[in-house]
Structure formats: structure tokens, C-alpha cells
Design goal:
The chain contains nine helices and ten strands. With 221 residues, the protein is α+β, with helices and mostly antiparallel strands. The structure holds zinc ion (ZN) (2 copies).
Amino acid sequence: MKTEQRTAMRELGAIGSTFGPLWDTYFESAFYIHGHLCGGMPLGFRAGLAALKALGAERELDMAKLVFVETGTGHAAGCFADGVQMATGCTFGKGLMERTQYGKWALTLVDRATGKAVRVSVRPEVMQASFASPFVQQRKQGTAPSAIPVEVSRPLVEKQLARPNEDLFVISPVFDYPLPAKGKASFNLVLCSVCSEAVAENKARVRDGEAVCIPCSGYGG
Ligand SMILES: [Zn+2]
Ligand SMILES: [Zn+2]
């Protein structure tokens, strides 16, 4: 990572302290984990924060919330989803993020404990300005985001950070979103009788009376 990018990430991350205690650490980390400076990740981060605030909820430490992001893939601002993930704590690894292919900059955050949800979408004029920015123009020419000079990417982020939530997002009223009860998590593992790799017990298959992993079973997922 280039020094200028790192410095900008550290300085922009510090602005996260205005979101509340610890948020400068989360925000700065989000930049590093994402890998480059861009407008999409910070916008998703702010959208995730706005959703938490609207629900009166804290960043998810465990598995009690779920987020649906509508960004999809294959366009200029998929980075939004990384920001959502890192602000809400509803991560891919914890199985708390699902992505639809709508190609829209919106998320729905659901709290299992209360059965309540909120949808946050980016105002269309914000997306139009973002797509017209010099940053996206350079991306269109084929420049990798990390190769775009900080003088181009940083003002985009700073401009967004200076704007209040109302300018950036449409935030729905809180609505009911009951989720089906989750199946019990498995805390047991078995060894596949073919490849000997460890498999979560509830994902193993049985073939000829022996436990096997899905790839070795020949049965398909
Ligand atoms: Zn990005
Ligand atoms: Zn196997």
C-alpha cells in the first residue's frame, strides 16, 4: 500500500470519532481492510451507521442481526457493501450478510431480537454525483482504484463525510421483519472418510454408511 494512501486512511479514519466512542478505530480499520480509498466504502459505512441509529441498535458483535445489501456486482460502486459490513458488524463470515443483484445502493438491517428492520438507500443525486466524479471517470478509463492519486480520491470521501445523513440517505420508518427461527449451530465435527479433512457435522453426508464431505460424496451441495 502506498504511503499516501495509508496516511489518508489514518487521517480520514480519525473522523470516525465523531460517530461515537471506538468508531475511529472501526472506520480506520475499514479503510485498511477494504484496501483502497474510494467513495463507495465510506458511503456504505455511513449508511450502515444510519441504519443502526434508526433501529436504536449497537454494532453487531455476535449473530443477532442480519443485513441485506442490494448492490450486486459488476459495476462501479460495489465497494458500498464492504462499508455496510464493517459498520454494522453483520459480516460475511458470520453469515449475517446477504447480497441481492439489484445494482442499488441500499441495505435493510434486521434485528432478530426485536423483529424490526429499517431500509436505508442512497439518494439518487448522491449516486449521480459519485458516478460523475473524477474518481469514477479514472476507473472508467481502466485505472485500478488503489492507483488513483489520493488528491482525486480523498476529496470525494471528505465531501461525503461533511454531509449529514438526511442529505445522503432516505431512511425508512422502522417496520416489522420477523425472521424464521434459525436452525441450531453444530459444534461437532467429523473427518471425511475419503479426503480426511474436517467437516462440520451438519454439513457432512453419508455414503455407504461412512461420513463424507460434500465434494467427496458426489451428491452435490
Ligand atoms: Zn472501493
Ligand atoms: Zn472429503
